């Protein structure tokens, strides 16, 4: 009799696990190189190959507002500012493989090479949350109001507090604030290079921002301004050039090492994100639902494709 009860229990457990597996959403397996867009208005992700052709679309039941690739390049972390978990997808398996508990209010995430950790910014508790690779929260640091843009640079983590007037600088190893730099409120878009901190933004009220503000990473002083109208909100930097996306004028600017504008192009409608893929610059137009491929030296359009509705974040795997 005992044997029969145990056997019944095993069967019940097997059926339960089978039903659970069947209920989990699975997506097209993603292998090889890609550029993808996380599309906010239709809760989807579009994957595009080196030829500039979409080859897969993942449709989500959850509203994700951002994401990053993790160190192994197979796991992808997606978050939403109204979610209480970080969903970890395996691209090769096409499914969620982990869920990390996190408080509601996540605005951004970043993989930290220095410590092999993930840090998230949270607008509700005005804090940074640090996680190890198993999803265990290891540290929480309070910064400013609405932490948003983040970048790792030379052992430091730079954080723009969007609804505040300060940029927080964190020692990544010690997990402490080592500096705070005065910046305008509503700042967004961050680039740290050559001991300089480039800060973009929307502006305040009815006065939109027209300049990128450049600060000294050592002293925190404002050292220059670069006219890149209107509302510069994102950057990309390589060994030769710096690219600035200004969504108020639907413009991408190419700057040389002297901070001089050498090229500019008007593309899409309301661009936010820029990256590099297979030797081309890629820019997403949020309101035009397209992805532009640009020649890096001339900004000439190589290709334009339709993606999902409201492409807001670009992820690249090469």
From TrEMBL:
InterPro entries: Haem_d1_sf, Host-pathogen_enzymatic-act, WD40/YVTN_repeat-like_dom_sf
Keyword presence, Signal: yes
SUPFAM superfamilies (UniProt xref): C-terminal (heme d1) domain of cytochrome cd1-nitrite reductase
Name of the featured protein: Outer membrane protein assembly factor BamB
Domain of life: Bacteria
Secretion signal, residue range per the UniProt entry: 1-21
Swiss-Prot/TrEMBL keywords: Signal
Residue ranges of the TM segments: none
Keyword RNA-binding: no
Organism placement in taxonomy: Bacteria, Bacillati, Bacillota, Bacilli, Bacillales
């Amino acid at each position: 009799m005992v044997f029969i009860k145990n056997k019944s229990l095993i069967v019940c457990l097997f059926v339960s696990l089978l039903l659970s597996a069947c209920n989990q959403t699975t997506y097209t397996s993603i292998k090889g190189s890609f550029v993808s867009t996380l599309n906010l208005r239709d809760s989807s992700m579009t994957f595009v190959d080196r030829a500039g052709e979409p080859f897969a679309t993942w449709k989500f039941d959850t509203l994700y507002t951002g994401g990053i690739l993790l160190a192994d390049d197979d796991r992808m972390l997606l978050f939403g500012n109204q979610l209480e978990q970080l969903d970890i997808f395996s691209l090769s398996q096409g499914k969620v493989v982990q869920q990390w508990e996190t408080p509601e209010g996540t605005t951004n995430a970043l993989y930290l090479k220095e410590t092999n950790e993930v840090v998230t910014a949270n607008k509700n508790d005005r804090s940074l949350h640090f996680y190890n690779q198993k999803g265990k929260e290891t540290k929480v640091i309070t910064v400013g109001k609405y932490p948003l843009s983040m970048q790792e640079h030379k052992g430091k983590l730079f954080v723009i507090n969007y609804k505040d007037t300060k940029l927080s600088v964190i020692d990544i190893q010690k997990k402490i604030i080592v500096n705070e730099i005065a910046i305008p409120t509503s700042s967004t878009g961050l680039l740290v290079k050559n001991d300089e901190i480039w800060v973009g933004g929307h502006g305040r009220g009815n006065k939109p921002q027209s300049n990128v503000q450049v600060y000294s990473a050592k002293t925190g002083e404002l050292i220059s301004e670069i006219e890149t109208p209107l509302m510069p909100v994102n950057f990309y930097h390589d060994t030769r050039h710096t690219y600035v996306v200004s969504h108020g004028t639907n413009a991408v600017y190419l700057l040389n090492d002297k901070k001089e504008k050498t090229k500019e192009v008007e593309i899409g409608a309301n661009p936010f994100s820029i990256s590099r893929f297979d030797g081309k610059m890629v820019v997403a137009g949020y309101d035009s639902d397209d992805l532009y491929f640009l020649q890096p030296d001339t900004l000439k359009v190589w290709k334009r494709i339709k993606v999902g509705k409201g492409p807001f974040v670009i992820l690249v795997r090469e």
